[in-house]
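Homework help thread (please don't just give me the answer)

Our assignment gives two proteins as sequence + structure token strings and asks us to describe the second one. The first is just a warm-up. Here they are:
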Amino acid sequence: MTETAQGRLVAGVDEAGRGCLAGPVAAGAVILPEIYELPGLTDSKKLTPAKREALAPAIKAQALAWAVAFVWPGEIDRINILQATFAAMAKALAHLRLFPGLACIDGNKIIPEAYLGLLAGRLRQECVIGGDASVPAISAASILAKTARDRLLDLYDRRHPGYGFAAHKGYGVAVHLDALRRLGPCSIHRLTFRGVLPDKTPRQLGLPGL
């Protein structure tokens, strides 16, 4: 898919951190020019941290427009992770300095109109399964969302020592679950996610993708 479609600017949109037990969900939106030089551009999950960190400033420098937005744990707990992901994506699109005629959303769902605010009714959307690996603008959005969120979790690691946020970025790995059993949740944990609180109440599963 080209970065312009029938004269319209195309924004790629993707999220990071949907399946985490702690921290916000992040969404990136990127409009790339028709010609750019971003060697190795692909799904952020397929790149090393060093490669993502090298690509992120290059994406920002070459993009026609880009934005990253967050939705925080309290809101995730209140409206659920799927709705929070839609909200983060809509916020990222709303903060682009150029209006895209088309938004390509990674996954199998588009953003509900209720989240789009002034963009509702004006923005055409397409969902693209596997778009983070096949649509360059979505790949770029995934990298910006991932790197921004990772840097934030590095800061939280210093604010909340003992959980290992800098290493696992809030995902439910064994060392994180062990820390939760020892320390209990901190202020950035998603309290409605399974594994955060020591009870058997049915809780959200932060499954990847849309």
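The one we have to describe:
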Amino acid sequence: MTSLEAFLYSVAIVFAAKTFAWVVQLRTRNGGLVDSVWAVTLGGLAGFYAVVGDAPLVLRWAVGAMGGVWGLRLGVHLFLRNWGKPEDWRYAKFRKDWGAHADRNMFWFFQFQNLFTLMLSASAFLPLVFRDDAPPVACYMAAIAIWVTSVVGEGIADAQLERFRADPANKGEVCRVGLWRWSRHPNYFFECLHWFAYVVLAWGMPWGWVTLGAPLVMAFLLMKMSGVPLMEAEMIRRKPGYAEYVRQTSALIPLPPRA
């Protein structure tokens, strides 16, 4: 299978996955499932590319395992976070604003997200599984170190936030515990860091710089589009102490709090 054929198959895969999420939300009236489906599908593409690629086997196994485990962990976390809960406020707002056209618009909104899914997978995974040679052993070691740091770090940040939210005494309060004292979005920081693992594996490959598109796309999505802007506007509206938290705490990279 050529890289172009693999990419065309991935288009069909993500379309089917988001259509499944849309059908489920027709019954549950909860669009939050799409976040979990997005993560699992993106991780699944890493495994799919690893199977159909023709790069050295060790490299394909590395890409498939790193992308697959990352997507599975994040997907399960998002699923459990939303399971049995009211619809995420973002999707609830869309549903309210769209009114009678909510179901139609939700379908196309889900499919629109596939543009970024394909951009991430095509820049991070696809070039690696079709490269002619393998990167040096040092690149494997560096990539694994970055991957472990990012996945473990994001897991810790997610767990700290969930524990904070689970305590009734913290209702309406701003989470400033653990990593959240040093960054307003430590989970997003580690999410962006994760994609640099594939950049390292592209060392010595012609057009290897293409893999830089993955962390750049993810940073754009989180910091400029669907992540931080929407979330922080809502948090400032709902939580009186959040504006002060914004002034004192780094937006992304963990840094000591400002006075």
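TA reply:
I won't write it for you, but here's a hint about the kind of observation we're looking for: The two ends are 57 Å apart (CA to CA).
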